[in-house]
Amino acid sequence: MALLKSFCLCGSLRTGTLIAGFAGIILAILGIVVIFTVPVEIRTIVLDWLPKLAVQIIMAVNFAMTILISILLIIGTMKRNMYLMIPWVLLGIMLAIGLVVSVIYTAVDFYLKKDSLTGSVVLVLGLAFFVVYVYMWMVVYSFFAIIKEETDRGAYTKDPFRRAYN
């Protein structure tokens, strides 16, 4: 996969990675507020028999984990520590897959209910959000790859048998 050289053609990958981390925290907090305050129908694709409160709790735990891994991403970026960035990089690609599946499922569900306008809006906005999400993941992954290369290069240039008194 080709790595990005910059964020939005003018910013550094480090800045883009920090923006992704802070955006993850803000969106997760907003998500928690929305699922407990806005009266929307929330369902799961596979376990659609679960009561609404159980789904809300599952989503709140997911949002809490998003906050945690976003904090790790921010700390890892600031300290240039690739190990703290790994959870966000790994979970990010899985969430992107889940997002596109959810968007398509929701849009098809609206189409089957003869609500073409809502289905089209969900599909267009959902896929646009998916593209932005994947771009942000690529920014983070590109910065992660740079940090990993620096870490690997540093690990091989240090002589573990060198003594301080030589």
From TrEMBL:
Signal peptide: none annotated. It comes from the Eukaryota. Keywords: Membrane, Transmembrane, Transmembrane helix. The chain crosses the membrane at residues 12-38, 53-76, 88-108, 120-144. The keyword Transmembrane helix applies. The keyword Transmembrane applies. It holds the Pfam family DUF4728. PANTHER family: GEO08273P1-RELATED (PTHR34609:SF17). This is MARVEL domain-containing protein. The lineage of its organism: Eukaryota, Metazoa, Ecdysozoa, Arthropoda, Hexapoda.
